[in-house]
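Supplementary notes (optional reading)

For those who missed the lab, this is the record we used. Protein: Ferritin-like domain-containing protein. Length: 238 residues.
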Amino acid sequence: MHTPSSPARMLARRSFFRVAGAGAAASALVLAGCGKDDPEPTVAGTPTLTLGSFVTTTSSDPNITVLNYAYLLEQIEAAFYDKVVATPPADLQPGELAYLTDLRDHELIHREYLKYALGTSAYDNSLSAPLVFNFSTFTLTTRTGVWTAARQLEEIGVAAYNGAAKYLTSAEHLNALGKIVSVEARHAALAREVLQPGSFADNVGTTGLDDAKTPAQIVALIQPFVPVVISTANLPTT
């Protein structure tokens, strides 16, 4: 059984994550210089979501594509934590709702400055209504279910950023997304630690590095949460 952390330890953790969130927010200043002249990503009339911004009929801007990809991930995470904080499980231990609230606030920061950076190139500008994400595959009525889901989503986010960073051609975007993934990795570590004390860095494996997955691999993992089919046609592969 998990033994609740001491108030001092919990306060230290909360302070750490607030500082991390503030650092990510500051990187919005970097993103403020992003161009707004890229063509707008498109969503087909059928229930298919295509992430990407076409420069010609045969290629897409990798920076806009990756930012839209990251934007979708942050929307999912923010929606998840918003749902949990609104209706938390009754068996959360003291201080854990505050943790989850901090994580939600960080994800909201990430989501909003990615949206700002994309401007008219944000994929959801062409949607008639916001996407409503589906978290029915998770058990959100129990403490263990919530933290297990949080760990899964945060580790997906870390692997997504690690796998997509190489496709960026903008140093500003790379710097900003590097700050985001640093915060996401701390979120994942917190979820692991809450579920099993002492497991803070268990996901790094034998290499000492967090996992990295291709956009196509990540899309397969997040598809159950998204109410439309996500097309990988314009996601970078090389």
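If you only remember one thing from this example: The chain has one domain: 40-231.
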